[in-house]
């Protein structure tokens, strides 16, 4: 029934917002800025829960062959870049659609619609101007944001156009998890994250432990909610729910976290989300 589909959308939005706030609390409020360990912990728990759910029959997962896993490794590498750079970045820029759309146009040389082109230009304009006005913005954070956005956009392109027919979304994510755990574990010492985490002031704090456990569990629940939502809606409707979730998170953030902002920075953020709304509308109109 129609109301059940909307329940899946609201469940996705709820988990999305709570997961975002939990990660922001650990990374920003508690200042646990060691992404190889934080993301490694999340992906490790996600992999364990995903395999356990498959064994118990809660989710449908087939045996992943070696050839299928190897063919998906480029996507896993982009996934690691996405989560690592995303943790490093303090940016709130939301222009990954610009990256993926530009790459798609270069590959397929399709003629862009005017409404979609205008929305992408507005998103790009707000992304360029935000670091000039945001009082919380720093140069290194912007560079990590650029890397994060590129990985997100490239991963979307790879997932859509180079997706192996014998791998489901959950099986792709399972490969991503295991590859991430391996790569992040190897990188923990060279990056200095392991040494820094051992000296972290809140390492023995119950608040820190609860935050890390909640972030890992919510990340897994968000994966299940995403797969459920994608299976019940078209990609265009799925994009609408993602947009609504982002707007909800952005609107509630000032009431939960202390944020320094000014009018020009706020205008950049608002313009970015208005542009994304136009993008979602243009994609629905093009059906």
Short structural description:
The protein is mainly α and 287 residues long.
Written description of the protein model:
- This protein has 287 residues and is mainly alpha-helical.
- The protein contains twelve helices and no strands.
- It has a domain at 35-91 and 137-199.
- The protein is 78% helix and 0% strand.
- Helix 2 (35-56) crosses helix 10 (206-232) and helix 4 (73-88) runs antiparallel to helix 7.
The helix/strand series, from N terminus to C terminus, equals HHHHHHHHHHHH
Number of helices: 12
Major beta-sheet overview: none
Strand element count = 0
DSSP helix fraction: over 70%
Structural class: mainly alpha
State the low-pLDDT regions, or none: 90-97
Defining key terms:
287 residues, mainly alpha, 12 helices, 78% helix
Write the layout of secondary structure elements.
Blueprint: H1 2-29, H2 35-56, H3 66-71, H4 73-88, H5 96-108, H6 114-133, H7 139-161, H8 169-187, H9 193-198, H10 206-232, H11 235-256, H12 263-285
Helix pairs in contact: 1-10, 1-11, 2-8, 2-10, 4-7, 4-8, 5-7, 6-12, 11-12
């Amino acid at each position: 029934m129609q109301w059940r589909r909307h329940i899946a959308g609201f469940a996705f939005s709820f988990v999305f917002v709570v997961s975002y706030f939990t990660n922001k609390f650990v990374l920003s409020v508690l200042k646990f800025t060691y992404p190889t360990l934080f993301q490694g912990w999340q992906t490790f728990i996600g992999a364990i829960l995903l395999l356990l759910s498959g064994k118990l029959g809660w989710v449908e997962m087939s045996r992943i062959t070696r050839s299928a896993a190897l063919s998906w490794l480029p996507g896993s590498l982009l996934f690691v870049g996405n989560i690592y750079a995303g943790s490093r970045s303090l940016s709130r820029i939301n222009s990954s659609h610009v990256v993926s759309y530009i790459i798609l146009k270069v590959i397929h040389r399709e003629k862009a619609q005017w409404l979609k082109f205008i929305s992408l230009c507005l998103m790009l304009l707000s992304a360029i101007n935000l670091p000039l006005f945001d009082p919380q913005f720093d140069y290194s954070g912007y560079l990590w944001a650029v890397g994060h956005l590129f990985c997100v956009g490239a991963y979307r392109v790879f997932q859509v156009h180079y997706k192996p027919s014998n791998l489901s979304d959950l099986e792709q994510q399972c490969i991503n998890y295991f590859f991430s755990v391996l790569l992040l574990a190897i990188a923990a010492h060279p990056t200095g994250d392991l040494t820094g985490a051992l000296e972290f002031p809140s390492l023995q704090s119950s608040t820190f432990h609860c935050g890390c456990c909640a972030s890992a569990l919510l990340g897994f629940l968000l994966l299940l909610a995403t797969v459920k939502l994608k299976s019940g809606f078209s990609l265009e409707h799925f994009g609408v729910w993602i947009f609504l979730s982002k707007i909800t998170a952005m609107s509630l953030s000032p009431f939960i976290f202390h944020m320094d902002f000014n009018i020009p920075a706020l205008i950049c953020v608002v313009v970015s989300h208005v542009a994304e709304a136009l993008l979602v509308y243009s994609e629905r109109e093009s059906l």
